[in-house]
Design goal:
The complex is a heterodimer of chains A (821) and B (213). With 821 residues, chain A is of the alpha/beta class. Chain A is 28% helix and 15% strand. Chain A has a 6-stranded mixed β-sheet with strand order 6-5-20-19-18-7. Chain A has a 6-stranded mixed β-sheet with strand order 26-28-27-30-25-29. In chain A, helix 13 packs across helix 14. With 213 residues, chain B is an all-alpha fold. In chain B, helix 4 runs antiparallel to helix 10 (191-212) and helix 9 packs antiparallel against helix 10. The chains are: A alpha/beta (821), B mainly alpha (213). At the A-B interface, strand 1, helix 2 and strand 6 of A face helix 1, helix 2, helix 3, helix 5 and helix 7 of B. Strand 1 (26-28) of chain A pairs antiparallel with strand 1 of chain B, so a sheet runs across the interface.
């Protein structure tokens, strides 16, 4: 025995040393073997079975029903066991010491301390109380919500807003970052948002369409994810379409600057167009249709309003006296005039389904291409026919998949129960607007009291002092990071509830660890629009670390102001899940047999076999008097008197071509920053969800950075090789990304997928983003006075090969370096 | 008589080892209480460090710890500052800080709850020990591994198997993970970076002594 060398141990910690040792972490326990089980659950990425062994998720495989699973299913373990998980309630150090008097420049500096749940929730409650009593409801914004984790019971938006709402009133948002311009303009044009409306069923499109125009939409990329649990049935129809393209029975044309994933899948044609110039091209197509009398006069007479007020603008008899000829458009959009005419003729000659994506309206004047798309479809006269007309959402969830007609399970309530009995009844917003356009909250913080035009009203931006974010990551989805930094310096308190250290959490004061959806029991619809079934979401493992369900977090918050019983309605998690199922079962009793809850929970899924087809706007076409659209006139409004009455210079009474603040290919600003940056939805994650999953990131990252895709021509011009690190920059910011050089991209166009986590080198203004978040450089500008939506795709950048040693990626960390003072 | 003395010495050594393992475990599992911090900054702490520093391989790390304690003594709010130091060094993710979990250092997957967690669950089960519910931590949290080491040190007075188990735990799980963890800690300043070094050196030393036994 090496006793002599152990002499330094003698009596160590003997007398009094015990004060330095804390309680034991271990206790005697009778050994119990962890059983291996399979459980079922669902997600934005689809349904799956998970094998649980030793208390951990060891294997995930797609549900057998899903014949087209996305490989993102494999990233789920990376979410659960990510080292980016928030493990404990944390409070920002400076804020903890100084509360509202903390130095503003310290926000985002990553200095945190751990607190207990009781401390954290006390602070949260005290801040709500302070804001309501010191200021009022206008100072609290708890209205930013987003793509939350799936599950109808635990939907975090509902939990946060119900709980905070039981305490007092607050600022809410209208619209969303995905479809802000589209969902605002289309009710004036066709009477619905269109972006969230059911579309013509794929079997009818496949049977009837001769031409399908995919206008800036990438179905194969975006259909991998769904708002609820995705079934991926739409891919069956894409495969059929692929066969029809191959045998020549359907002609598919992808109008897009980039060769999309869908174009490759279908092996279809591409029509290149300069970025942000689609409206010019569409106007020219309208010019051709009208000049060559290819437009459907009867349809326009019967179903539309205002064509006569619009066509003079096209023909050069409008205010600008410019005829929107193909030759005029060719100069702007880069498409040969003859080709524009050819496409117009083709569409008029054949049954043509126009399918638009959402990226097109996420730009300045994003209302215009959607409106103009509807006008083109109206001129073709095929709206309401199977395989004809226009759609704005066939890339979204299960839109276009034949539907069961069953009722989906409801959700945990978002609002306080009526009669509302808030702790603070004050609803005096002191002249500020209580609801503001979703993307204008940073404007509000920076310029409180400013009046902006929005959709026919004047919005007075509130003086926001406190924000609460739950399952919501604006430090991914909002534009212009450095502008956001300036705004966040003005906030007194920020609360973030999430399961991973997003950049939003790193810029918050109180950070609460929610568990992932895989650590709670829940229920969801299988197929958002097809309602193919109802799926049980078994808790795979208990909440990790000190994380809690949103339900538990908000129950405990409400307990602090004695509203917890009203909040929960006296039910626990499983009672809620069962009640949502029972309500769904009752609603479906005349159509579908659903088993008792116990049986459903054991089976894990109940499927509905109905396969109904739908033709968008067919009822309207059949009888526009009996089935009018939801527009002011009941008809398709080619000219909108309502919009014209607003007098907006950037959204007039009919679609117009307007130059952008920034545009590539010779447009404004391109002499300084020549490249158009498109930041479309990612291929390997859902917005920013799953970016923290290292196993998934390894499939696409370049030298650990988000890819920046570019053409071989641009790569050559800037001396960049595939795999190089690249600095992407403009006057708003800079980031480092990894080059992927590809023929899919034309000269002058680069892409960085949105959702790349923000990881600045430090908290200073203008700091280099170390991972590659495109919103470090995007423009924070309202689409127009109509929608005030995001204009993320109006963005020019420059690129250069990164010089020197790139800083380490900081995007996936929690609190970091603290030097005691 | 001589045998009794030797047995007593072994007992003292094992109790000393257990005490140290538990001390390190307490330092890692959570922020120091005021009481713990005061004790550490007082004569008790100094004496502990002096005694450890008699072992040459531990001396440099002990000096670093002493220096950090000296800095703390003059701070306005040392407990809070230390809590922030703790969070910065241990509570972030593996890029920005040095989370104390063996799984993160087992391979380059950077995932939690991997093989070391399972290994620890088996070891705990074998010794009929469970993690107290207050700490809902993966079993491969270094604090839990160190707590088990302390328990095994005591058990090894009566069980040869416990001695073998310690060797196995240190060689297959603890030391391979402590090395990169300690390196990651050195990117930070403060007491925890110094303590990580002391812990790493101590476990290395302890292994060499265990191997001699």
């Amino acid at each position: 025995m090496a006793l002599s060398r152990r002499s330094f141990l003698k009596g160590i910690l003997g007398s009094g040393g015990a004060a330095m040792v804390g309680p034991s972490l271990l206790a005697p326990l009778s050994a119990k073997a962890a059983e291996e089980t399979w459980k079922i659950s669902g997600s934005h990425w689809g349904a799956f079975r998970a094998r649980i062994a030793g208390g951990t998720v060891v294997e995930i495989k797609p549900l057998e029903f899903d014949q087209n699973p996305t490989e993102m299913i494999e990233g789920i373990k990376g979410i659960i066991y990510s080292s980016s998980r928030i493990r404990y309630p944390m409070v920002r150090y400076e804020w903890y010491k100084n509360r509202g008097k903390a130095k503003p420049s310290t926000r985002g500096d990553n200095r945190f301390i751990r607190v207990t749940w009781d401390q954290a929730l006390d602070l949260f409650y005290q801040e709500l109380e302070r804001i309501q009593t010191t200021y009022g409801p206008w100072a609290l914004h708890a209205g930013q919500t987003g793509w939350r984790q799936t599950g109808q019971m635990h939907s975090c938006n509902n939990h946060m807003q119900r709980a905070v709402g039981m305490h007092g009133n607050y600022i809410r948002k209208v619209g969303d970052y995905s479809t802000g311009a589209g969902q605002t303009i289309m009710p004036y044009v066709t009477g619905s948002t269109e972006v969230y409306a059911q579309g013509t069923s794929w079997p009818l499109i496949l049977e009837n369409s001769k031409v399908i125009v995919l206008w800036a939409t990438d179905l194969a990329k975006n259909l991998q994810v769904g708002w609820n649990c995705e079934t991926h049935e739409s891919f069956d129809y894409l495969k059929q379409l692929q066969a029809k393209v191959a045998d020549g029975s359907i002609r598919v044309i992808s109008i897009d600057p980039v060769k999309s994933k869908t174009q490759h899948l279908l092996n279809c044609e591409q029509q290149y167009v300069h970025p942000q110039t689609d409206v010019a091209m569409m106007l020219a197509m309208a010019h051709t249709l009208y000049s060559e009398e290819l437009h459907d006069k009867d349809f326009l007479d019967t179903y539309t309003l205002g064509f006569e007020d619009f066509i003079p603008y096209v023909m050069g008899e409008g205010e600008d006296k410019i005829a929107k000829t193909p030759e005029w458009a060719a100069q702007i959009c880069g498409v040969d005039a003859e080709r524009i005419k050819e496409l117009a003729r083709l569409m008029a000659a054949e049954r043509t389904q126009l399918i638009f994506g959402w990226g097109l309206q996420r730009q300045q004047h994003g209302e215009q291409p959607y409106w103009m798309g509807a006008i083109l479809a109206a001129m073709l006269g095929q709206i309401g026919l199977p395989g004809g007309g226009v759609s704005y959402a066939h890339h979204y969830s299960s839109i276009g998949v034949p539907y069961s007609g069953a009722s989906a399970p409801g959700a945990f309530p978002l609002n306080p129960d009526r009669p509302e009995d808030r702790v603070h009844q004050n609803s005096d917003y002191q002249g500020y607007s209580s609801t503001i356009p979703v993307a204008r909250w940073v404007d509000a913080i920076l310029e409180p009291g400013k009046k902006i035009q929005y959709n026919g009203t004047t919005s007075t931006l509130p003086d926001i002092k406190m924000m609460v974010f739950s399952g919501n990551n604006p430090w991914h989805h909002h534009q212009d990071r450095n502008r956001m930094k300036r705004a966040f310096e003005k906030l007194e308190t920020v609360v973030a509830i999430d399961f991973a250290w997003t950049a939003t959490c790193r810029h918050a004061d109180i950070v609460l660890p929610a568990c992932t959806q895989f650590e709670r029991n829940d229920i969801d619809v299988y197929g958002s629009y097809s309602v193919r079934g109802v799926i049980a979401m078994h808790k795979l493992v208990d909440p990790l670390y000190q994380s809690r369900t949103d339900f538990e977090i908000m129950t405990e918050l409400c307990r602090r102001f004695d509203k917890h019983k009203q909040y929960t309605r006296g039910m626990d998690e499983m009672e809620w899940v069962e009640s949502l199922y029972q309500e769904c079962r009752e609603a479906n009793k005349d159509r579908y047999v659903m088993p008792e809850f116990k049986q459903f929970w054991q089976d894990g899924i109940v499927l509905f076999d109905g396969m109904n087809n739908y033709v968008h706007h067919a009822a309207f076409r059949e009888d526009p008097e009996i089935n009018p659209l939801g527009t002011p006139s009941g008809f398709i409004e080619i000219f909108s008197r309502k919009i014209a009455s607003f007098g907006y210079d950037d959204c007039k009474g009919h679609p117009t071509w307007m130059e952008k603040a920034e545009r590539s290919h010779g447009g404004p600003g391109s002499d300084k920053h020549p490249l158009w940056l498109q930041s479309c939805h990612p291929d390997y994650r859902l917005h920013s969800q799953m970016c923290e999953s290292k196993p998934m990131r390894e499939r696409y990252a370049v030298q650990g950075r988000e890819p920046v895709y570019m053409s071989p021509q641009d790569a050559k011009q800037y001396g960049i090789s595939d795999g190089d690190l690249v600095r992407v920059f403009n006057d708003r910011g800079q980031l480092v990304a990894g080059a992927v050089v590809s023929d899919n991209y034309p000269q002058g166009v680069v892409r960085i997928h949105e959702g790349a986590w923000y990881g600045p080198e430090d908290e200073k203004m203008g700091a280099l983003d170390t991972y590659g978040d495109p919103n470090t450089v995007t423009l924070d500008l309202g689409s127009s006075k109509l929608a005030q939506a995001t204009s993320a795709n109006t963005c020019l950048v420059s690129i250069e090969k990164f010089q020197g040693t790139a800083p380490a990626v900081t995007a996936f960390g929690g609190p970091s370096e603290v030097a005691p003072t | 008589m001589e045998k009794n003395l030797e047995q007593q010495a072994i007992k003292q050594a094992m109790e000393g080892r257990a005490g140290l393992y538990w001390w390190f475990s307490s330092l890692l599992i959570r922020e120091l209480t005021n009481e713990q911090l005061q004790a550490f900054c007082s004569e008790q702490g100094s004496s502990l460090l002096s005694q450890l520093a008699t072992e040459p391989s531990l001396r440099p790390a002990c000096e670093k710890v002493s220096q950090e304690l000296a800095k703390l003594r003059v701070m306005q709010d040392p407990q809070l500052e230390l809590a922030a130091d703790y969070a910065a060094t241990l509570l972030g993710d593996h890029r920005s800080s040095a989370p104390p979990y063996a799984s993160l250092y087992a391979n380059d997957s950077a995932l939690m709850y991997q093989e070391p967690h399972q290994q620890m669950l088996e070891a705990l089960s074998q010794w009929q020990l469970g993690i107290t519910l207050e700490f809902n931590e993966p079993a491969d949290h270094f604090a839990i591994v160190l707590d088990l080491m302390g328990n095994l040190a005591i058990k090894s007075l009566e069980s040869r198997q416990a001695l073998t188990a310690q060797l196995d735990l240190v060689t297959t799980l603890l030391l391979p993970a402590l090395k990169p963890w300690c390196e990651a800690c050195q990117k930070h300043t403060g007491l925890y970076a110094a303590l990580s070094l002391l812990l790493y050196e101590f476990v290395k030393l302890d292994l060499s002594l265990l191997q001699e036994e």
